[in-house]
Amino acid sequence: MSKDQSNKNKAYQNYVDTKIPKPNILKNCIWAFFSGGAICTIGQVIHNVIESIYDYSHTDVSNITTLIMVFIGALLTGIGVYDVIGKRAGAGSLIPITGFANSIVAPAMEFKKEGFIMGVAAKMFVLAGPVLVYGIGSSAIIGVLYYIFNH
């Protein structure tokens, strides 16, 4: 690449850098904090209601709450509402369990035109797959280390 072309590339990159909108990090963090907190509060309310109505163990109520929150996340993704929430809430909508449901349902919906096997089933875990692999793998390693050092 010639020196003239290199200077043009640098000038263009400087121009692009001046035009790209800069994110308001503090505002984004506040939105993520409160939206993630709101999702978790909804989950806690569901948990408390189930626990007060039914005579289930705390573990069973926690499992039921998780199931309901995953269903809500999947349903809101399916009807297009979770994307709107995600655009405004940012990372606050990704961290709770509803974000996990969104990461499974969204690719499945995107590739449904390719059929149930090569589209929905094959693409369902495109986003969530690495999270599951590394989450399960690291928990297995930590479990082995815990066993070794505590026995």
Characterise this structure.
This is Sporulation stage V protein AC. The chain crosses the membrane at residues 29-50, 62-82, 89-109, 124-149. Keywords: Membrane, Transmembrane, Transmembrane helix. This protein is an all-alpha fold and 151 residues long. The protein folds into 2 domains: 3-93, no CATH class; 111-151. Helix content is 79%, strand content 0%. The protein has 7 helices and no strands. It has helices at residues 3-19, 25-53, 58-78, 81-89, 97-110, 116-123, 128-149. Helix 2 (25-53) packs across helix 3 (58-78), helix 3 (58-78) runs parallel beside helix 5 and helix 5 runs antiparallel to helix 6 (116-123). It is extended.
Describe the protein's topology.
Elements: H1 3-19, H2 25-53, H3 58-78, H4 81-89, H5 97-110, H6 116-123, H7 128-149
Helix pairs in contact: 2-3, 3-5, 5-6
User: What number of domains?
Assistant: 2
- Helical segment count: 7
Main beta sheet, described? none
> What is the averaged pLDDT score?
85
Q: Based on helices, strands and strand pairing, what is the structural class?
A: mainly alpha
Helix content: over 70%
- Radius of gyration of CA atoms, rounded to a whole number: 22 Å
% residues in beta strands? under 5%
The separation of the N and C termini measures 63 Å
Shape: extended
The total of beta strands comes to 0
Spans of 5+ residues with little confidence (pLDDT < 50)? none
Helices and strands, in order, run as HHHHHHH
